[in-house]
Amino acid sequence: MKSELAEMALDQKRTMPDDEAPDAVPVPHALVPHLNETAILLDIDGTLLDLMPTPREVWVPPGLSDTLNRLTERTSGALALVSGRSLNDIDLIFAPDVFRAVAGHGAEMRLSIDNEADDVHAPPLDKELKRRLAAIAKLSPGILLEDKGYSLALHYRLAPHAEKAIYESVSVIRADLPNAPIEVLPGKFVCEIKHSGFTKATGVRELMKREPFKGRRPIFIGDDVTDETVFAIMPDMNGLAFSVGRRAMGVNGHFDAPSDVRAFLARLLDPR
Ligand SMILES: O=P(O)(O)OC[C@H]1O[C@H](O[C@H]2O[C@H](CO)[C@@H](O)[C@H](O)[C@H]2O)[C@H](O)[C@@H](O)[C@@H]1O
């Protein structure tokens, strides 16, 4: 697809300095005829769903699953969720609907929605390491642990004062294990410790080699630091990147809030 959308975004950029350039969110009218050549890749928290005080409190607004299912149909299956959450968690959130996904920041991938055997999973994080990291939650009430198997997340949205202490404690443990293949991933009020070697970007690259995504032009929408790895690879695939809540580096445009992303997706199906 020779994109009118990218042309639109680039034309606007060429004519004015970057800090004055308007945000170029694609017009559904321009995109609609190309849905069958497009792959729609969507982050979950802060992009499709509004952020909540704790991971368990998120909810899927009425109509969103229907929109995602219809877009899956319209793209012949080339819609995937690209999330830091585990596949298991994603399925609980969207139940009974099941979507193709790159999950766990690239640790897991689901290419087929009918066959669990196709799912790919990274190995679990060392038990002893997890035990040590989990003890950090004792630093303050309000620190929540999320065990995803291949990673462990320490959430501090309810205890923001604990941020520095959490990162210092993680550094001490990290320093004890200089050769461990792990890395620290900061997110929105969360410090995650995961195996190194995979990211959302490695997951998306792998996904885009497989049917039904192969050969399509990706459009990725995300909001967090971890989504920046995917924003960065979109040009390699002739893709488009859009951030949410802020204008991230290198994106083609941005949405103000998840509600705007949901409205945009609905308009792809019903452009007026
Ligand atoms: O890649 P995403 O789909 O955006 O997932 C990123 C992380 O999302 C969840 O945590 C975030 O959302 C919570 C609910 O709104 C919020 O309470 C928390 O502060 C955020 O960091 C999820 O729990 C993580 O596992 C994901 O990595």
From TrEMBL:
- What cofactor requirement does the entry state? Mg(2+)
Q: In which pathway does it act?
A: Glycan biosynthesis; trehalose biosynthesis
Q: Which UniProt keywords apply?
A: Hydrolase, Magnesium, Metal-binding
Q: Which reaction does it catalyse?
A: alpha,alpha-trehalose 6-phosphate + H2O = alpha,alpha-trehalose + phosphate
A Pfam family the protein falls into: Trehalose_PPase
BP GO terms, sorted? trehalose biosynthetic process
According to its UniProt record, the EC number is 3.1.3.12
Q: Give the GO molecular function terms.
A: metal ion binding; trehalose-phosphatase activity
Instruction: Give the similarity note.
Output: Belongs to the trehalose phosphatase family.
Q: State the function annotated in the UniProt record.
A: Removes the phosphate from trehalose 6-phosphate to produce free trehalose.
Name-wise, this protein is Trehalose 6-phosphate phosphatase
**Source organism (scientific name):** Bradyrhizobium shewense
